[in-house]
# Entry
Amino acid sequence: MREESFGDLLRSWRQRRRVSQLDLGIEAEVSARHISFLETGRARPSRDMVMKLSEELEVPLRHRNRMLIAAGYAPVFRERGVGSPEMGIVREAIDRILAAHNPYPAVVVDVAWDLVAANAAAEAFFGGIAPELKGERPNVLRMTLHPEGMAANLVNLAEVRAHLVHRLRRHAESSGEPRLAELLEELMSYEYPGVELNVAHVPGPGDILLPLRVRVGERVLSMFTTIATFGSPLDVTVSELAIETLWPADAETAAAFR
# Structure
């Protein structure tokens, strides 16, 4: 099997971002001819050029390391575990955000939507799903859309599924993360007897956000989500973390959580 070259990776990310050689050259302040030479292997990039081009193409840090290695340089972005001593300030920020969001659910996920951390409200929120979906590293999208997960109680399953599948597909395309493509294929294979999935959501006159409407006993809880990431990360792990918080979409849901 041929080793991946810097030129192949550069071309792949340029095409993924739908950027021409001319446009990339303008942004990176080099000629389109030089970009072409880099992609064909006729020119070898400096380390600074690898860093600049990957920055302009918004290549994820994990893949920037791959581009550096392919160009003959050592990777520069470390990948520390969340539990490592150097990550203390990150853990403190996560813990504060999760705790402050109680009594509403909040979770931290990695690039593949595997659960990294959750607050007490989220643990209770996911408490009723099948135990086999909550293994050593539960996946939030799997727990949400699996027929034996939250999907069994989602009142607006078709709309929520369509939104999450679309978001995951875009995330898989933009990140180049193979685990996301595998997860997307799995989610698309789920079957929901009696549920019409090919129904477009038409907003009503009072709609502002697409809510997640979950039946819990006699109640239907209605929530929307926000997602936050760390600004200017220089660590692979930190760059791939996202904090998703759920908020009540109506007064009844807020009162139920309180």
Summary: Residues 85-257 form one domain. The chain has a mean pLDDT of 92. The beta strands are 106-109, 115-118, 212-216, 219-228, 242-248. The longest helix spans residues 157-175.
